[in-house]
Amino acid sequence: MQAAWFESFGPAKDVLQVGELQAPSPGPGEVLVRVRTSGVNPSDVKKRAGSFPNLLDDGLVIPNSDGAGVIESVGEGVDANRLGERVWLYQAQFARRFGTAAEYVSIDSHRAPNLPGNVSFEVGACLGIPVMTAHRAVFADGDVAGKTILITGGAGRVGYYAIQWASQAGANVIATASNEADKNACVAAGAQGVVNHRGDAVVGQIMAASDGKLVDRIVDVEFGANLPTSIEVLKVGGVIATYSSSQMPEPKLPFYTMMYKDLTLRIIIVYAMPESAKQHAIDDINKALTRGALHHRIAETMPLAEIAKGNEVVEQGRIRGAVVLTIE
Question: What angle in degrees, to the nearest 10, is found between the helix axes of 202-209 and 223-233?
């Protein structure tokens, strides 16, 4: 089968290879999927760069956790009626070596939910990490109807979906953005207010957007850098749900300040979500897809042979939306 892989850590153009590998066979409880698209996420490029030093201990790695395709065979214990089913894939390259950047992947049947017929394979490759993370961040701490939710980096991969989940569930959404294009994207996604997160006036802008009321929850893309502002604008008993802290990977916590506000800190990664939370997200995602209720942004689509370029585009951080590889 055609596949991309790496056998050492380093820059994408130096370590990513594209060629032929042996196609897998489905084991018990697995499905064999003919992959049509593979999503390149920030976590995928970080793994290739060496964020998990033990990742290559057992041999080469085929990258990427998200994708979409068609089930071509099933393993023992899987309903044969799944043959020919269009599916989207998540968590393909976690606690295992073989992800979606290949013509075929064998994967636990539960990691291959049905892809509604009205949804393209390109969109299917965008769902796993961004949409499931956003769902968890918005809903992990209960109903958001009538609550005010601050979503930082609202034009980002996760933030864009978080705005949609929260606003469609009845929340009053305030987003942060740093330029007019991002502001417009947040408004289009459903944000009632958008503030510029750069500069010293961000707290005042947030409070003005919330009519002077402290916010109920925050969905945060930069936990450490945003923490002082978050504490100031969050109500007593509020929640910070965060999925990244790249600017300050080891933030210092003002413990007593947070304690006196009785704050809840929720740190999210799809891989570690409870299975019940994953299934909740999958159910809601597929309902929304069927209704056409979610809007998606695909920044670039390129063939598998250009996977190194795809990694570089993601690492540069200048795009808004997903990078999708197509596999013919």
Answer: 50
Q: What are the φ/ψ torsions at residue 326 (nearest 5 degrees)?
A: -105, 145
DSSP 8-state class, residue 47: H
H or E element, residue 172: strand 172-177
pTM above 0.85, yes or no: yes
Residues 225-261: b if buried by 16+ CB within 10 A, e if exposed: bbbebbbebbbeebbbbbbbbeeeeeeeeeeeebeeb
pLDDT tens string 133-183: 999 999 999 999 999 999 999 999 999 999 999 999 999 999 999 899 999
Region at 152 (left for phi over 0; alpha for psi -120 to 50; beta for the rest): beta
The residue count of the chain comes to 328
Architecture (CATH level 2) of domain 2-126+296-326: Alpha-Beta Complex (3.90)
Within 8 A by CB and 6+ apart from 181, the residues are 155, 320
Domain ranges within the chain, ordered by starting residue: 2-126+296-326, 130-271
Q: Do domains 2-126+296-326 and 130-271 have the same CATH topology?
A: yes
CA-based torsion, 242, 120, 189, 247: positive or negative: positive
Which distant-in-sequence residues (6+ apart) come within 8 Å of 168 by Cβ?
Answer: 190, 288, 293
Report the chain's terminal Cα–Cα distance, integer Å. 11
Query: pLDDT at position 245, please?
Result: 96
Mean pLDDT by 10 residues, the chain (328 residues): 98 98 98 98 96 96 98 98 98 96 98 98 97 98 98 96 98 96 96 89 95 98 97 98 96 97 97 97 98 96 98 91 95
Rounded to whole angstroms, the Cα distance separating 39 from 202 reads: 33
Tens digit of each residue's pLDDT (9 = 90 or more) over 182-217: 999 999 999 999 999 887 799 999 999 999 999 999
CATH of domain 130-271: 3.90.180.10
DSSP alpha helices (H): ranges in the chain? 12-15, 42-49, 121-124, 132-139, 157-168, 180-189, 202-209, 223-233, 255-260, 275-291, 307-316
